[in-house]
Structures are given as structure tokens and as C-alpha cells.
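Board notes (copied after class):
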Amino acid sequence: MTGPAVRARALVLDCDGVLADTERFGHLVAFNQTFAEFGLPVRWSVADYQEKVLIGGGKERLASLLTPEFVAAAGLPADAAGQQAAVAAWHRRKTAIYAELVAAGAVPPRPGIARIVAEALAAGWLVAVASTSAEPSVRVTLERAVGAGSARAVTVFAGDIVPRKKPAPDIYVLALDSLGVPADRVVVVEDSRNGLQAATGAGLTCMITVNDFTAAEDFSEAALVVSSLGDPGGEPITVLANRSRATPGAWITLADLTSLGAPMPTADLGDVEAVVRTIATVAVDNEKYFGDLDAVVGDGDFGYSMARGFELVLQGWDDFDRTDIGTFLKKIAIVITSRIGGTSGPIWGTAFLRAGTTAGSADRLEPAQVVAMLRASIEGIKARGKSDVGDKTLLDALVPAVDTIEEQISAGHDTAATLRAAAATAREHAEATRSMQAMRGRASYTGERSIGTLDAGAIAVALMFEVLADEWPKRQS
């Protein structure tokens, strides 16, 4: 590997169905014209060709004709060498016809292909085409699709340069080795299951842009499946499946491609335990601080109640049922609800109960599940406390923090960065409660006198997020 290429990113594209709508408007037409010119007793319909595209390579598709019945009807040589020579001749003519069709503008480029290639090259990405089609066909399609200037900067791997064609991974293994880019920094765009299997077989992340011939195929291994790459001002794309951190809009961006190769962070029971233990520790360690804040306009029991309840959580830590994440959180909820006095017990207990119910029997959580658990907790707190954002409660810090978590996940940020951003948001909104009038709890009895004080619950939420953000990187080291 060369030094500069180690940090580079690479975009590797299939040709047919990715660069242009080649199958229906190019290859199928060229095959049938070839059959006519050679006087062969066959014409492929669209339905026929939908079956043929499952065969990788033009010569291989032609060779699929060579049944004993066809050989006899076409007057072909009986020996294998003679038949191979016939297939080679057909393929040469078919390739020439295809090139003429492309040059004449009969094969339309796919939406977004010229844009995304230009953007990738401008950003310093390496761009390549990896196809089992004949190299002359690939090069003429590439130039027509992205323009001569961009085409000159694109590396082409095509034709018979590898022993096995897709779905074997050979062409992508060759491309990966030649480009000198780590596999986790390569994104492949394919349009078929054969191509997807070839790319993933080489250890590469693959997205799919479907077409009429491949839309019904199985793309379960793809990071992202879309109708096309799309273009600004054009028809918005349709996202058919998304197993990545990308959040596509009306068209695919370079940022979307960057997000494809990064695995989405997940949370397991150990992560959930770390969060719960941090919450409990913050509650116990800050008993006086939270109590003093609450005493300014409230009854001052917030710090004491929280500390006594979460103290019991820590004391019984090893005894909690850890069958799954949901069960663990529900058991925590029972202790909190029964042992924390005042309104805090039911509110915090409900939060843990709703989170546990949402988690269910999961032993690992996807980011969307984490957000759903937090949203469920928020709704539980609102219902139990008959409160909402703006009432000067813990919700004024918690809701914006969860909004930030969802935004950070959508942007593809890791857990540590997400927690830092959430902590900053929670602190900002907790401090903002100073200018608010309390509408719930004992503090609401003081009316406007509550303005100018901080809400203890909101500050507690902010501090819990800050400690989590500080401690999380240590867990990953």
C-alpha cells in the first residue's frame, strides 16, 4: 500500500444498471440485433432477459444458449472449441453494437451518477468501476455517464481480468488490492444480488440502486437500498431499506456514502448497567447539592429522597434480575418507585418502567431502540407528573437532550460524541430554568418567586449526562 492511499476513501461502482440503464436500453437491444445479424433463431424478450441478467458476463449469457437443440437449430459446430469461437464472435459484434447505442445517446445515465462521481473526486476520493462486462463497453458507458473529464480520473476493472465473475468476489478483491484502500473505507454501489454478493464477499460495504430488472431481488446484506442516487431538482429517491447510519434526503450525498461504511453503535446490557449505575451514583453523591437547590423554593427533599432510593439500588446491585435489558430496568423501577419518597419516586420509577417495557426481551439495542426507550420514559414522566416542557421540571433538560441524541445518531456520530452533545444541551436548558416560573410541584406554590432559581430535577439530569459523557470514553479504552 502507498502512504497517501491508506487514509483515502474509495467509491467503487458497478457499470450496468449503476452508471446507466444499460440492460434494457443497451445490452438487450444489442443482443437481439446480434442475433438477427447472425441469423440465430432466438430473440430475448424483457421477461427472458430478466432471467439472463442473473448470469454474470455477456459471453456467459450467450453461452447459456448452447443447448443441443439450439446448436442444431442454429447450425453451430458440434465441438466445444467451435462453439466457443462462435460465442466470441457474437460477443465482439454485440459489444460493438452496444458502443454504438451508447454513443448515439440511446442508453440514459442513471440519476445522480455524474454528480456523485464529481463530488467524490473533488473530495479526494478514489473512484473506480468494477464490472464483469467487456472493458470497451464499460469505458464508453462510463464516459457517457460522467463526462470525459471525470472518466479519465476513474480506474476501470472490467472484463476477463479475473478468473471468476460476479457473484464471486474476485473483481472486488482485485480492486481493493489495486486501490490500496482499507476495506472499511470503501463503499460499493451495485444494482443486483450478484453484485451485492461479490462486494460483501470481498468484505466491502455495499449500497444498491435498483432497476426494473433487479427490484425484486434479495438485498438483505446491503447497507442501503434506494431507487436511485437522485439529483437536486429531480425526482426524490425512495429508500427501500436502510441498515446504516446514513439519513438520505431527496438524493444521496457524499456524507451518506461516508456513513454507510461506519457500523451503527449498539448498546448491550453492560452499557445499560453503566448508565443506571451512573445515574444512581450521581444521585447519591450530590444529595446535599440537589437538596439545597430544591430548598430555595421547594420542600428541599429532592436530594434526600433521590439519594435514599438510589442508595438501595446500589446496595442491591448484584441481585437484580439480568435476564434481559427490559427485565433489569423494570426491577430497578420497582425499587425506585417503592423507596424514593415524594413525587420523585413515581416519576423516576415510571421513567425506568417505560424504558424497560419498550426494551422488552432485547439483549442488544439498536440506536433507534435507545431513542424509543428515552421517548417512552419522557411520555411516562409527562403522564405521571402531569407536566410538560416549559413547566420548570426535569423535562426541560431531558427532552432537549433526547432530541440531541436523536440528531447525533442520525448524523452518524458515535456514542461518546452523542453523549457530549446531549450533556451540553441538557446543561444549557437546565440553566435556562432560572428564568422560568415553576408550574408543577411544591415550587409552583411560590408563583413568580420561583423565577430566578434553578430547577433541581433539570440540574440533576444535566449532571447525570455530564458524568456519563466524561466516563463513557473510559469504558471504550
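Comment from the instructor: The longest helix spans residues 80-103. DSSP finds 21 helices and nine strands in the chain.
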